């Protein structure tokens, strides 16, 4: 599992865009976005760097986070 902080994620549209970006990189991924904490949890076999690149290409600036 990979967790990213995404400070710019602030609405449902952001969640949809982030989810679509992750699914474009890995159609089998499971994505859980939390607006309150500005974080996204991704269960995927794709390397975290690839997921981060997909999120960056979608216009977001993900930073790695650790499970709490």
SSE inventory with pairings:
Blueprint: E1 2-5, H1 12-25, E2 30-34, E3 39-43, H2 48-57, E4 63-65
Antiparallel strand pairs: 1-3, 1-4, 2-3
Helix pairs in contact: 1-2
Structural class by secondary-structure content = alpha+beta
Rg estimate, integer Å: 10 Å
Proportion of beta-strand residues: 25-35%
Shape: globular
User: What CATH architecture would you give?
Assistant: 2-Layer Sandwich
Pattern of helices and strands: EHEEHE
Strand order within the widest beta sheet? 2-3-1-4
Given this structure, which CATH class is correct?
Alpha Beta
Number of domains: 1
Helix content: 25-40%
Report the mean per-residue pLDDT as an integer: 93
Number of helices: 2
Query: How can the largest sheet be summarized?
Result: 4 strands, antiparallel
Rounded to the nearest angstrom, the distance between the terminal CA atoms is 13 Å
The beta-strand count equals 4
Write down the CATH topology: Alpha-Beta Plaits
